[in-house]
């Protein structure tokens, strides 16, 4: 598969070198062009060093999610090769956005799942899976999971709980959670799914490439310790 971002970087760098040659030929100063090339190279080095999580969660506190902001976020996630995006809003029901973005999602091979869906789905053909959660997906879901697992004869382990939540409710553990807003609270996000998750607080939804990469850079600098 062709890496479009890599091709764009090569094309931009080639243009700058052509400008340098033209400036040298005409006798103009090339200092500005050299600075720009170095800046671009530093940005590319940072981008290559970023760890790309397969699953990103976004917690929206005291903010509204609009069609345009969600579409921008989905485009950014596609560009960053994110495979699964979970959006949790404890106040608003954003299920209407699935209909508003249906044409866009179909063209981009994006699947939007609403709520804790227990029906099996084949998601292998999609580039990005988006899970829209509301406050109903929090405590009640875990209570049901505990009740069902406690009545089972099999031992209750970490793996059993994670598998149950994934199969029955499509609740997966994200590597990173982006906490949007000024309220320092998880607001009822299913706590089991955050047991090994890195939390990145931000003021506004990172729906631009630069803002999203800042979140990934912060995540990449974290030292994740599992049981240490």
From TrEMBL:
The chain crosses the membrane at residues 15-33. One of its GO terms (molecular function) is ditrans,polycis-polyprenyl diphosphate synthase [(2E,6E)-farnesyl diphosphate specific] activity. GO terms for cellular component: dehydrodolichyl diphosphate synthase complex; endoplasmic reticulum membrane. Keywords: Endoplasmic reticulum, Magnesium, Membrane, Transferase, Transmembrane, Transmembrane helix. SUPFAM superfamilies: Undecaprenyl diphosphate synthase. Belongs to the UPP synthase family. It comes from Haemonchus contortus (Barber pole worm). This is ditrans,polycis-polyprenyl diphosphate synthase [(2E,6E)-farnesyldiphosphate specific]. It catalyses: n isopentenyl diphosphate + (2E,6E)-farnesyl diphosphate = a di-trans,poly-cis-polyprenyl diphosphate + n diphosphate. It is found in: Endoplasmic reticulum membrane. Pathway: Protein modification; protein glycosylation.
């Amino acid at each position: 598969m062709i890496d479009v971002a890599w091709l764009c970087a090569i094309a931009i760098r080639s243009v700058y070198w052509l400008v340098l040659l033209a400036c040298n030929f005409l006798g103009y100063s090339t200092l500005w062009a050299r600075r720009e090339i170095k800046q671009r190279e530093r940005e590319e080095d940072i981008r290559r060093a970023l760890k790309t999580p397969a699953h990103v969660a976004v917690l929206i506190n005291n903010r509204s999610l609009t069609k345009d902001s969600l579409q921008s976020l989905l485009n950014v996630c596609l560009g960053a090769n994110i495979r699964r995006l979970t959006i949790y809003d404890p106040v608003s029901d954003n299920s209407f956005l699935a209909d508003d973005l249906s044409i866009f999602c179909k063209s981009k091979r994006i699947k939007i799942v609403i709520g804790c869906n227990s029906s099996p789905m084949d998601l292998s053909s999609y580039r990005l899976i988006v899970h829209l959660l509301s406050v109903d997906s929090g405590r009640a879901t875990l209570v049901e999971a505990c009740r069902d697992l406690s009545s089972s004869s099999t031992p209750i382990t970490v793996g059993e709980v994670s598998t149950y939540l994934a199969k029955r409710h499509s609740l997966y553990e994200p590597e990173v959670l982006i906490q949007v807003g000024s309220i320092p609270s998880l607001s009822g996000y299913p706590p089991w799914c955050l047991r090994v998750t890195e939390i990145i607080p931000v003021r506004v939804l990172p729906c631009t490439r630069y803002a999203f990469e800042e979140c990934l850079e912060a995540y990449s600098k974290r030292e994740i310790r599992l049981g240490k």
